[in-house]
Amino acid sequence: MPGEAVTLQLGHYSGCVGAHWWGLQAAALRGPAEPAELRAAALLRFGRGPGGTESPAPRLVALELKGTATGYRVLIPGIAVGHRYRVPLPGTATGYRYRVPVPLPGGVGALGAAGAGDEPPVTWDGAVADYRERAPGDAGSAGSRGGDGGGKGNPGAAGPAPAGSQEPPSLRLWSDYLNVQLHPKSVYVIRQYLHDGDCGCLGAFGQGESLLQDSACVEELEDRLHFFVEECDYLQGFQVLCDLHDGFSGVGAKVTELLQDEYSRKGILTWGLTPALSPVGDPQKSFCRLMNTALGIAHLSRHSSLFCPLSLSGTLGIKPEPPVTFPYINYNASLNYHSSSILAAALDTFTAPYRLCSSQGSMLHFADSLTFSGRKVVAAWAALPFPAPSGSSLPDILSAHQDVPWKLLSSWKEQKGSCCFAQSVVLRGICQEKKATSSCLGQPSSPLHSCESPEQMLQQYLHTQFPGAFSTSHVLRQPCHTQPPFPQFFSPLLTRRGFLLDKAQGISSAGVGSIPVLAALQSCPGLARLLRGLCRELRARRCSSSCAAGLEHDDFQEALEEMKSLAQCYEAGFGADGSEDEADSD
User: Fold this and answer.
1) Is 330 exposed, middle or buried (0-12, 13-18, 19+ CB in 10 A)?
2) What does the angle CA 86 – CA 89 – CA 94 come to, to the nearest 5 degrees?
3) Which of 295, 359, 479, 561 has the fewest CB atoms within 10 Å, i.e. the most exposed one?
4) For residue 370, which of 455, 417, 308, 413 has the smallest C-alpha distance?
5) DSSP letter (8 states) at residue 544
6) How wide is the angle at C-alpha 478 spanned by C-alphas 470 and 330, nearest 5°?
7) Per-residue DSSP letters for 342-381?
């Protein structure tokens, strides 16, 4: 039985990914009544309400800025969730009214009038937390704030929803589509900075580091962490979702350092998140983004058991590259609501090994299997949905793919080649009901058809695709649930269960309630190109005072050298191109 994990969300885009991830956990709990393969309590805590009703809530600490902390559903002492209530704020004569999500046409969760929810009332006996930032008379609403696509100063931000879109244009903040309840201790609002605007933003790595040097801020964070840690029966470790592109990379550096100092024997798995589209047209902002990303990777990998950059962007550097595309998903890369849902589905899949009910390992063991020889950075891949014809058997499906049909989610220019040091692969949602095809003489038509179990089939397939790699694999019956508020952006070539049809179906693609997913974490030579590329771009440009705010020059140089050393860990045994060393020597 796996132990529990505490999750930290650091930044707005991390909140977007987290909101979808928690929605996937809630959807799995509402799934068919069959033995669960993943232990929900690994990520969720369960309280009791009136009548003994169980109410799951994430074991979560989220750090956010002013302007994003709006409209959460929280567990309030003595007040049933879904009812109207006011929370008084210090120094004001009036209180703010919380709103709760209600379904909209098209199945998208949004914030509406309180009392319209369809979940049973639940009460909580803990402390009340203040999450509201605006007075009731403010003209701005959760839907009008710049959250999705970056707000002001981001030409790539989405405008009005396109014709035929099923989601209203108000889905900008992650709280707009969060459909689970949060504990009052879950959200900590950093009041020194604003989420949106031309000034007062947390834009530089050094600014983020400085925040966590404030003793009051550290005490507040530790208090919230201890609350969730102390209620765990067996703490596996921490999952850290951290924005890389802004000052939250500096916040993450200090948070992971704190976790490493206080919980050195626990796993710390950190996911560095970046929106699919970057602001364009402002060289200064582009360089700050690059600098935050590079410094974040150096520091977060230093203090984590495993670090993985996650993004649908084609690059983490300055030069724009097209975002990742998927053959059976029609998503809008400028909408954080869309791109974050894809990353959440992938995240939910490749974190499954340490959440399996049958798991005997821990998060730390999981990380150690991928990060040996100093390779603490891993790459993410996903086929979402995994292209599987309806009614086909697993060996027939795998045999049809000469190359693994997944896409890179770690933002470098993908190159052909099947080499990696180690990988953890999870395939979920493929039925085993149909018997595999055989040759006309009754003999297995391929080595895959002679395997006795789905796990052996997948392992054999991986051995063929990645000879010599250390591969661990898991096959889950249960798919990834994609009911709203997960976006309904699927191809009409998919069935309701996410399998492929020969021609488009007559029903709306909004009927896709689950999909099969293949996802993996890999330690591979391509990471050397990513790390060295970031170093070269930084050295080729002059650092401005605003980007370097709160950062010592020696610390900057140390981080660059650390990334260069990290890149060398991925070159051994694969005949690295010496030209990159020459490019770094300037």
Assistant:
1) middle
2) 60
3) 561
4) 308
5) P
6) 90
7) HHHHHHHHHTGGGTBTT----HHHHHHTT-GGG--B-EEE
**Cα separation of the two ends of the chain:** 52
Tell me whether residue 216 is exposed, middle or buried, using C-beta atoms within 10 angstroms of its C-beta: 0 to 12, 13 to 18, 19 or more. Answer: exposed
Residue that is written with structure tokens 């970056």 in the block: 150
Element (H, E) at 535: helix 526-539
Q: Which residue has the tokens 């610390």?
A: 555
In sign, the C-alpha dihedral spanning 2, 225, 194, 176 is positive
> 23, 53, 185, 186: which is closest to 122 by C-alpha?
53
- pTM for the whole structure: 0.83
Nearest-CA neighbor of 511 among 94, 86, 107, 66?
107
Can you read off the two tokens belonging to residue 205?
A: 């790595």
The DSSP result for 441-485, as a single string, is TSSBSSGGGG-SSHHHHHHHHHHHHSTT-EEEEEEESS-EE--TT
Structure tokens belonging to residue 107: 């199945």
Q: Distance (Å, rounded) from C-alpha 442 to C-alpha 456?
A: 21
CA 485-425-410 angle, to 5 degrees, is 65
| CA dist., res. 486 & res. 480, Å (int) | 11
- For residue 585 the two structure tokens come to 């020597």
Nearest-angstrom CA–CA distance, 347 and 335: 19
For residue 189, give the H/E element and its range.
strand 187-194
CA 582 to chain centre: 36
Q: Other C-beta atoms within 10 Å of 552: how many? A: 10
- pLDDT tens digits in sequence order for the chain, 586 residues long: 789 999 999 999 999 999 999 999 999 998 776 788 999 999 999 876 556 677 889 999 999 988 765 555 555 443 333 333 333 333 333 333 333 333 332 333 332 222 223 333 333 333 333 333 333 333 333 333 345 654 333 333 333 333 334 444 467 789 889 989 899 999 999 888 776 655 568 888 999 999 998 999 999 999 999 999 999 999 999 999 999 999 999 999 999 999 999 999 999 999 999 999 876 667 888 888 999 999 999 999 999 999 999 999 999 988 888 999 999 999 999 999 999 999 999 999 999 999 999 988 899 999 999 999 999 999 999 999 999 998 889 999 999 998 999 999 998 877 666 689 999 999 999 865 445 555 444 555 788 988 989 999 999 999 999 998 999 999 999 999 999 999 999 999 999 999 999 887 665 545 899 999 999 999 999 999 999 999 998 887 766 665 766 677 888 888 899 999 999 999 865 544 444 443 443 3
Q: Which of 527, 528, 531, 490 is CA-nearest to residue 511?
A: 490
Q: Which residue has the tokens 């993943």?
A: 38
Give the span between the Cα atoms of 130 and 338, in whole angstroms: 29
Close Cβ partners of 412 (under 8 Å, ≥ 6 residues apart) = 315, 316, 526, 527, 529, 530, 533
